[in-house]
Description:
The structure is a single chain. The protein is globular and about 55 Å long. It has a single domain, classed as Methylamine Dehydrogenase, Chain H, CATH 2.130.10.10. The protein is built from 1 helix and 30 strands. The longest helix has 4 residues, at 42-45. By secondary structure, it is mainly beta.
Amino acid sequence: MKLLVFFISITIPVLILSQQLPFSFDAKAILALSDADMVASAYTDGFLHRDKMAQDAFSVIQMGKNRADVRVSKIYVPNSVNNWTKGLDKSSDGKFAFVAAAREATPDTATLFASQLNGKYLYAVDIQNFHQPVVADRVEIGTFPLAVQSNARGNLLATATNDRNKEITLVEWRGTHFGKIWHFAHGVSTKNYARVTDISWHPSGQFLAVTLEENQSGHIAFYKIHQQQDTFYISPIGNPLLHIGRLPGAGQFSPDGKFYFVPDLKDWVSPGALLTIGFSEQGQHRIVSTVQTGIAPEGFGIDPDGRLLAVANMNGTYFNIEHPLYQNHSNLQLFQIGTNGKLTLLDEQAFEGLLPENVVFDADGDMLAVAVFDYADLLERRGGVEFWRIVDKNGKPSLQKTGFKVSLTRGTHALTIVK
């Protein structure tokens, strides 16, 4: 269904502070989502503490050759931090962005986390003019859509929903608007019903990785995509990997497609883990590595060469400030990816900021952008994107904080770049 919506786009210069010089993030733009309906501590105490003046935002951070050229344009698009890290993606040609709205906008009178409404829509945002993004289309895909990803060819989107027997959904993308929709059951037999919480395309565009969550036990299943004329269907590849962790988050394939990485957040208060799964087109998948991380390693990124992986650990930043487990510092870890898929910790750095949900490398892999949901500021409650540099330190890649950040609407949680 074609949706014609008119939004006001606001373009503002960005104040970027730094004690260090050069800055060169290799991308045309960074796209970001902000969920303005809650603070980070709502996850643990249930109180939204909404700012009635703030609205959910889709932001385009236009990069430039100089720091002074950076600009932000934003429009209202419903989105939610309750969807792990894949509520945002872009088309293969970089002309449109896709937003899976796990939750609808929360009513102004709502005060509790439980009052949030499940979403059902997938949005397409035209970003051909970075200064004036506009919602171009909207389609209903199912209850509580938790992820959206475009295939390499750019004609098909994969999404995950909470509708039974329709958990895996493929949506046709026709270049400027949505087309046909196909729903599939995950088909994995478990003791209790397992819901799909994440979905990823293999770089080839021929396979899908799907995360399932069942009563504090996570599973990973792989599927092959088949096409007959203008119809698609899926079939499982091998047996699913059962009980890979207590609370698996959103996964990513390595650029060469040989490995699939997925975090385990466990109980949100103990150190988490990152698992490496060796992917096999013949269905002989296996776990090849498990490494310990900081607490709550939800967001991570892989560099374009597939050599490095950076993960943001939320630590105790989602507790109320009066809670004994509260922390106002998160931390960033940098891992080396071995040729066998095993991860080796290279560096670790703490930084201020609450609930860092996402990490992306720039196009040449020498810088990172980290989404920060909120800061421990009693007056100005803002989200943002912080920038880190990958440098050589004593003969190994290390993290260096640049001091640069872009302030955005509170609740920044999802990032992707336009190269």
